[in-house]
Amino acid sequence: MFELSKEHEDFRKVVREFAEAEVEPHIAKWDKDHHFPSDLVPKMGELGLFGLVVPEEFGGMGDDGDFTSLCVAIEELGRVDQSIGITLSAGVGLGINPILTYGSQEQKERFLPDLVAGRALAGFGLTEPDAGSDAGATRTKAVREGDEWVVNGSKAFITNSGTDITSVVTVTARTGTNEDGSAQLSAIMIPSGTPGFTVEPAYDKLGWHASDTHGLTFESCRVPAGNLLGNEGEGFRQFLKTLDDGRIAISALAVGMSQRMLEETTAYAKTRKAFGKPIGVNQGVSFQIADLAVMVEASRQLTYKAAWLKDELEHGRRSVKEVKQAAAICKLYSTEAAVTATRIATQVFGGNGFMEEYPVARFYRDAKILEIGEGTSEVQRMVIARHLGLPTA
């Protein structure tokens, strides 16, 4: 049965100390200023956070790391701030993993060492203005001309795509048509600074203010044919696998949020007084916090079971179907629980919960995107139902 090892718990302490020392003192200002702290990324690299699932030959942790360790790190960063947590989650899950899993030896040697060290970040361009959950509606096209791919189109909501240390963005593009008439999708790596590759101004977002998010435009953008990731036409399968892993990571981010809300509300209910008594004596408050504790425990168990299954899959002891179902379940439950957790926390804090001087306000703004990114709650329910063998449209 799965459980976190002593090594995992010791690692948790290391990441928590890092987050509380390097993030907590600054995050309120970063959030207010919509500032992405690029100088924090190399520090995260020095701690080994970007290399937890990467072999030693590319600068990673090798056998000393695993996917469960990555989830521990994301949870602990997310407990302090969600923007920094998603920077790691996307940096590994969407930036490093596609190159590590599908890249050639030359591609890995070119990009991975800097990404693992935190000297660079990578993005993954899937979503488009008219193609989100319906990835088959992708309009970005890549046409082969001699030894080059010519890319035209646009992407939306791409994390880590416009920082001053972003080195490459992998994008999905139509490269043909399948026999059934559906779009043939391929993944192509486009280095930052490539002519015809434009990073649009940063979005003005509801939350995740310290995270880097941009739209991308490609106009006759030419890259070498060797920038194809894997084989032509494999893009759809590649990003589905990438999203499965990413859903577990987002679930870990949600666990960190719910854990912080539990801590904040418990402390506040013990010290905040009304009618001469701590508000925690009132069942209207204490029962809500008790429900929050249940959600935290359930979210954590579901998330780390899925992470354990993912690690077991790497050793051939579990099936892809098991991981896919567990990923959808934990992502659905944990993210919806996190949204509820921030609502409860804001209610417990009352008027103070509406004030930016208290962290619950920031977490309340950050929460909603968890139910959307890496597959909406509706998509997760579709995946779960399909795996139960229920009829589909």
Describe the structure.
The chain is α+β, with helices and mostly antiparallel strands. The protein folds into 3 domains: 6-119, Butyryl-Coa Dehydrogenase, subunit A, domain 1, CATH 1.10.540.10; 124-232, Butyryl-CoA Dehydrogenase, subunit A, domain 2 (Beta Barrel); 236-387, Up-down Bundle (Butyryl-CoA Dehydrogenase, subunit A, domain 3). The chain is 50% helix and 17% strand. The protein is built from 11 helices and 10 strands. The strands form 3 sheets. It has a 4-stranded mixed β-sheet, covered by helices on one side. Strands 2-3-7-6 form a 4-stranded antiparallel β-sheet, covered by helices on one side. The protein has a two-stranded antiparallel sheet with strand order 9-10. Helix 7 runs parallel beside helix 9, helix 8 runs antiparallel to helix 9 (320-349) and helix 9 (320-349) runs antiparallel to helix 11.
Summarize the topology.
Layout (H helix, E strand, L loop, with lengths): L5 H17 L4 H7 L6 H7 L20 H14 L1 H21 L2 H13 L3 E5 L15 E5 L2 E12 L6 E12 L5 E9 L5 E6 L10 E12 L3 E2 L5 H37 L1 E2 L2 E2 L4 H32 L5 H30 L9 H9 L9 H11 L6
Parallel strand pairs: 1-4
Antiparallel strand pairs: 2-3, 3-7, 4-5, 5-8, 6-7, 9-10
Helix pairs in contact: 1-4, 4-5, 4-7, 5-6, 5-7, 7-8, 7-9, 8-9, 9-10, 9-11
